Amino acid sequence: MGRSLEVDDPLAQAIAPPPNESPEDREARLSREREAKRISDDIDQALRDERAALKRRKKPVKVLLLGQSESGKSTTLKNFQLTYARKAWQEERDSWRAVVQLNLLRSVNTILDILQREMTGSGYISSPTSSDSEDEDEQRDATHLQFTEMHRLLKLRLAPLRRVQKDLERRLGSGAEEPTDAPPGMTTEAAPQEFYVRSSTGWKSTLEKLKSRNSTGSRDDSHTREWREREAEESNAIIAGCRDDMRSLWHDPTIRQMLARRKLRLEDSAGFFLDDVERVAAIDYSPSDDDVVRARLRTMGVQEYRFVFDKGSEAGQEWLMYDVGGTRTLRQAWASYFDDVNAIIFLAPINCFDEKLAEDRRVNRLEDSFLLWKAVCSSKLLAKTQLVLFLNKCDLLDKKLRSGVQVKDYVPSFGDRSNTLGTVAKYMRTKFRDMSKQYSPESRPIYTHLTSVIDTKATALTLGAVREGILRNHLKGASIL
Ligand SMILES: Nc1nc2c(ncn2[C@@H]2O[C@H](COP(=O)(O)OP(=O)(O)OP(=O)(O)O)[C@@H](O)[C@H]2O)c(=O)[nH]1
Ligand SMILES: [Mg+2]
């Protein structure tokens, strides 16, 4: 462009080489100019990179939580909220009271159902958490249980809790919707009586039903709301009135014997609050952080959660997390979220090597996790997606192994390795990693964590590392790092 300038143009004069320039001076000048151009180009490139990085940063980080039902997806999400969205968490916490109450009543009513059958001799019902080969043992010993007048009285006095459970289900808007996942010919009797929600906006809307909606889904007027509040108070009063009897039931040696014979490990099942009945059934009960993390509310559909980090280098970065329902019939919905997803946190509960799926009692839960993991790894759509694997429920695995359950009885390839947490976890980790190596369309690192996501302190540390890793990957290629 300089060439086309007129000789008397001030710019042309300013940039023209000095007159009488020696060849050495000319070479030195050209070298300086080349260096200046290189620096200028570098700056231009840096600016372009920064713009690209900012654009990338603005794009939300999308994370999908996957895994079978009860693997701990929603619990992991709760940990994210607890750590990174404190304010929303605190606003929502009290709404979980009804869910915790429902969880408690589910355990109590399960015990009462079994007690009823044992006392009237109407025989065996199978249990949701019992494992394969337990059925025959139970009936064999049932006749030796010594029930007394006290058991009959407890049964009678705790009877109103059935209605309270129904009321709570109705108030949560899910009473009419029991899981119907059992395949034809299979009974749903054994499936846990869970409470779940259909919602695309998260728990908040669900829990708000407790306050502002009636069972037909229409908005309440103030009169109805008042009536429903009274109903809630009534439920609270009945639960509080039954507190001592619930405690007696749970601590009664014959009842414990009855449950042990059925190998019903209520204390290891989802949403177990009987050990906290004193506190949870109190009239002024308000859920703690831990209670909310442990409360069980089954996810239906796909729920989207938005987090915006407000601190440090990630300020303003938006994250979208998707929590899906893990039961079989809900898995078709997953694929439509695969597009554009940055990372998947896959949860595999490794304690359940001896358990069956609630929705299909023919399928071993660990086997189901393997198949799901294989499907995720081999998906072409997800070939470039970062995979983070949580081998979850390590606390329950440890408990189970200590109680003497042998992995090799259910997983023959485990062989004669030692039946301890460390060895079993290592074995599972290798199994999952080998599968990802074998089935991933392109090689990729797999980030594996041994977790117990009800342990909020440990999980906060894990999530910190996971978050860093995902963000690093998200920004990869941009010079801002
Ligand atoms: N002891 C123990 N309990 C856990 C752990 N992870 C989850 N839970 C409990 O297991 C239950 C099920 O967990 P959720 O997070 O609801 O499972 P989910 O994967 O969201 O299940 P769906 O919504 O049905 O797909 C909850 O009551 C949790 O508190 C764990 O590591 N240890
Ligand atoms: Mg869930």
From TrEMBL:
GO molecular function, one term: G protein-coupled receptor binding
GO cellular component, one term: heterotrimeric G-protein complex
Comp. bias regions, Basic and acidic residues: 23-37, 218-232
Biological processes annotated in GO: adenylate cyclase-modulating G protein-coupled receptor signaling pathway
Annotated stretches, region: Disordered: 1-37, 122-142, 169-195, 209-232
Binding sites annotated in the UniProt record for GTP: 268-269, 392-395
Keywords attached to this entry: GTP-binding, Magnesium, Metal-binding, Nucleotide-binding, Transducer
Residues reported in the UniProt entry to bind Mg(2+): 299
Matching PROSITE patterns: G_ALPHA
InterPro entries: Gprotein_alpha_su, GproteinA_insert, P-loop_NTPase
Identification of the protein by name: G-alpha-domain-containing protein
Biological source species: Sanghuangporus baumii (Phellinus baumii)
